[in-house]
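Annex B.
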Amino acid sequence: MDNTTKVEFQAAGATMCFETGQLARQADGAVMCSVGDNVLFSAVSSAKEAREGTDFFPLQVEYREKFYASGRFPGGYFKREARPSEKEVLTMRVTDRPIRTLFPDGFYREVQINNTLLSCDGETETDVMSINASSAALTISELPFQGPIGAVRVGRIHGEFVLAPTHKQLEESDLDLTYAGMRDLPLMIEGNANEVSEEDFVAAMKLAHAEVVKIIDAQLELRKKLGLPEKKVEAPERETAPLDHARELAAQDLDAAMDIAGKQERQDKLNEIKARLQEDMIESFPEMADGAFEQMFDQLEVEIVEKRVVERKARIGNRGLDDIRELEGFVGILPRTHGSAVFRRGDTQALAITTLAGKKESQSLDAVTGGAQEKTFLLHYNFPPYCVGEVGRLGTTKRREIGHGNLAERSLKPMLPEDYPYAVRVVSEIMDSNGSSSMATICAGTLSLMDAGVPMRSPVAGISVGLFGGQGDRPVLVTDILGAEDHCGDMDFKVAGTRNGITGFQVDLKIPGLRWELVEQAFAKAREARLKILDAMTATIAEPRAEISPYAPQVKTVQIDTEKIGALIGPGGKNIRRITDTYDVQIDIEEDGTVNLYSADKDAMESAIKEVEMATAEAEVGKIYEGRVVTVREFGAFVEILPGKEGLVHISELADYRVGKVEDICKEGDAMRVKCIDIDQQGRVRLSRRAAMEEEGGEKE
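Polyribonucleotide nucleotidyltransferase: predicted structure tokens.
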């Protein structure tokens, strides 16, 4: 395009391009990121001033996939893209996390990042492009973004790492790592794996980091080509006198309150200290009445919790740095569900319920970027307000709930059996939350699946590792963080896996980068804790139940010739509907001729299987059939012996004596036992009532 500035470069095994200057000129920054035929546009805009009373950074990230990007119309009645899909929400979250932490403390102007997928090849995912394009748009803007950053996807096929794997390659890969980093340090990881070791995982991160540096350099070159000076970001100056005064008045009391182990008791004490301090602070600093006190008190609380850990190795409640809270699990607690379990870790408790169904209940996917067409395993996570003792708005599923559910789903999916004949849904209802409810969901989900009789390859557990003093010279890692430790700390390092390796992971940082040695130490701590949790889980239920719940649909599998699929379905689906309606069963037919039948009624299942076998069977010479007369002619009767398969009983074969008229023996609709005596080269079937009677000892007339 005219008036554009672009930078082309090689990274992650492909030619990438950042381009700006033609579109969205009024935005603070706008960049088009291209990789092959994939084109993603990112525009950044911001408010000129922070809203009065705002005490947080209001960053909003949007990502939308337009169906025109792949030359398609949106599905449904309204031919317009509507609310974001789950995949789009997950891409928003993965874009937000590494960017949010790179704005300075005290910057409260509203910032909006709008990302749109404009063109798509349908072969690769575009979520890493969303991160890269957003970073580039922020880099060329004058917003105080302390980037740039870069993002890369890594897979592993047959032990070899693959950069920017395609959807097809990911089907063979035992690793799907989304990695984001700064020039020197890792910033975010997310994805899933099939029991990959911690050492191999770190190796994949370092491979990705080398490519991230190239992406970062390209963004800096783009800014330089635009004639913009090197960006220098300075944090807004803060008034220190109120915090200093508050520290003198309440630091000692707050520190003592942090020794209280019980969440509610501790919170009651903190509220008491807070109310008393607020009166004193407003008297000394009248301006604190306008909401500034809340922000200052939060800052003081974070400072005290971090100081306790870094200087005295004292956590909230005086728990040891690597101590896991009390663990408890129960299974089979609900009478009519297919599988149920409760998992508790301290004050965090998840109730997980498993439901099995036929594969027709699988979720159809219609992603613009391609990939899998359906999901046979779904995990949904619900976080009601009562789980933290609050009253909140109820309604649509929140982005956080979608993200936490997806993390648990990705962590459990690798351990489900391949070619499992059921669609499986797990719902996690968070009953109490005080840190890492997503990891509790993984543990409860495993127990629930095992209670349902799903033959998991191995149980999966999850744990979170936190960090304090991450930017200082005495960083401290802690295991199994509380909600308050998550809030006050520098990191939420979530890792899920089996005894053999990692299956799911997500790392959120509040600092600009994590030292490599801390990455390795965090993985080691997570593994040690995971093994302890697995011991507790297997003490609850050692292995999947041998049989599924009697309330779950039983499944039987029949293999038929692929050429007989049409015969089973029947014209317009008439035959398959007749079987399902008559016996109240569900029938799923695969392209390879696998027929799965689902029913909780054993007798109905057996009858339906006979119908399927009959509908797909071929007539056999010498076999006796229970047929039905469909047509009567002068020369004989046509009898249906299999669904859609008829044969002729000649008048001479109706009895062992001379028959004057066919109507003397049968009429249309009559049942008749016949024996197949011949099939000619054209497939025409000859039947005999006389031969069937002789073989079965019927009376002669």
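The domain at 554-616 is CATH 3.30.1370.10 (Ribosomal Protein S8; Chain: A, domain 1). The chain has a mean pLDDT of 91. Further annotation is deferred to the next reporting cycle.
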